[in-house]
Structure formats: structure tokens, C-alpha cells
Fold:
Amino acid sequence: MDPILPFEPVRTEKFPVGENWVAQIKWDGVRILTYWDGSSVRLFNRKKNERTAQFPELTDIRTYCQASSVILDGEVIALEKGKPSFHRVMKRDGLRRLKNLEWARRHVPVEYMIFDILFYNGAWVISRTLEERQSLLQKIFQTTEKIHPVDNFPASTSLFQTIQTQEMEGIVCKDLHSAYVLGGKDQRWQKIKNYRDLQAVIGGVTLRGKVVNALLLGAYDEEGRLWYIGHAGSGKLTQAEWQELTRQLLPLMQESSPFINQPSRLQGAFWVEPQQTVKVKFLEWTEGGTLRQPSIQALIQVPPHECLLE
Structure:
């Protein structure tokens, strides 16, 4: 089975209305599709990068799905104080030294939230409605301690209020009549976020002693130019992660700024070649085109030119 690009929701600020709409929790995790061809299970993320080695506890598909072959779509999450933590799940997703896998499995357990089925017993089911696909999934799926189906909620407004109270990422509203479009993205799936986030590339740093303590962030426009969008020193990175990031960035230091515009924070800044990327949570965009209250959530492994201006 060749990996596919999944269907994606579009961002909206309004709650869709109608009996054909349901709402689901938007889990702050890693999108993972499971492929079972009857002999082996492989896991791939939304960019078609394999993650089978990173999440081996999800590969015993016979314990949770009755099918001779299947493709499932869902989100892998890691909990912190009872809530999904993108920072924690990236400790598993970003694992490259597989000798550390057993340590990671013990210290960063993951769960799999499954919300769709694309292929079943040798045939694609993507042309069926979401309601029909969910019914099929319910028939063949067995909930386990770590693998769960995603629930539907009829009242998107009430669910979003609960999400806000719990300080979670947001919700996804889905049309029960919708087919699943491989590589598609349209209004039939809509996401409403409790807070805003983006992927940013590191174009500069400041130091405290010999360790990086803040990042100058950028994003690319359609012409491939890198714009400074703000700096951040707060967030979820541990001291060990700051030290590791310092080790990665020191060889990338350069004389000139990579940004097309002049950063507001220049004193004590060192420029770096824009190669390393991070996920950033923020409140809003300012009129000057920078992020208000940015907070670093995790180091991520995405190509720098995929960090695009909104």
C-alpha cells in the first residue's frame, strides 16, 4: 500500500449550522494513517513519512480492528496532566535513535484517536459518506486501553466552550454527507481553534552565556522571501532541549540576517542559516505583521520552506 495525502479541514471562525454537521475534538497530536495489507502494518504521517518504528504499540492491529486489509486515519497523542501535549508527542514522533525507543515508550506513552476509515477488505470506501464510513468503523473497531474511536458531538458551540474551559486546541466540524478526498481540503471539514499556531523557521538567536535562550522567528511568502515575524523565549522547551538546540544552531551561524525585513529585536542577536523549525503558539497577529505573545511548543522536523505566512 502506497501512502496517501489525507483530507484536511479548512480554518473558520464560524460554527456551521445544520443537522448534517457533527463536531469532534481536535486532538493536539500527530496525524497518523495506519496501513494493513493483511501481512504487515505500516504507519505514515500526513507528509507520507513513515513512523512505524516510532509508534510500534499501534501496529498490533488485530487487537483493535477486524479486517483483512484496511487504512485508518487518526491522531496520535501523548497526555500531560490529562490533556494532549504536542510537546510530549513530538518526543516520540521526532525519535531518530531507535535504541532510545524503549525508554521513550515507558516515559512517553501514546494513544491513538481514530476518526476515519479509507480502505476496507481490498476496496476503497472514500466515496461513501462520512456517516457510512463511521458506521463501518464502528462495526469492525474494538476499543482498547490505548486506541479509541473519536466521538461525534451534535452541538459544536457547546463542545467548543468545553474545549476553551479545558484549554485544549479546538474542534473539527464535519459534514456527515461528505466523501473523503485524498489530498483534498475544503469546507466539508472545518476547524475552529481555541488558540492560533503555526510552523516557523529560526533565523536568529540570542544567548544567555553560551546557551540559546530566545529565537528570532520567520516565515516565507509566496516568492520565497523570509519575513521576521517575532521572537520567543518562553514555551515548553526544557533546559536540555535548549542545550541540544544550541548544539544544532551553532554551526549554522552567519554574518548577515536572513530576513527581508529588519527585526525589532537586534541587540545581542546572532543570525543563523534558516534550517531549524519550531511549532509556535500565539495570541494574534499585530498590525506590524508580528506575533503577539508567541510561545514555543516544540522542535519539529519540517522543511523550512513549508513555514509559510498565513
Summary: The longest helix spans residues 130-140. Helices lie at 86-93, 101-107, 130-140, 156-166, 239-249.
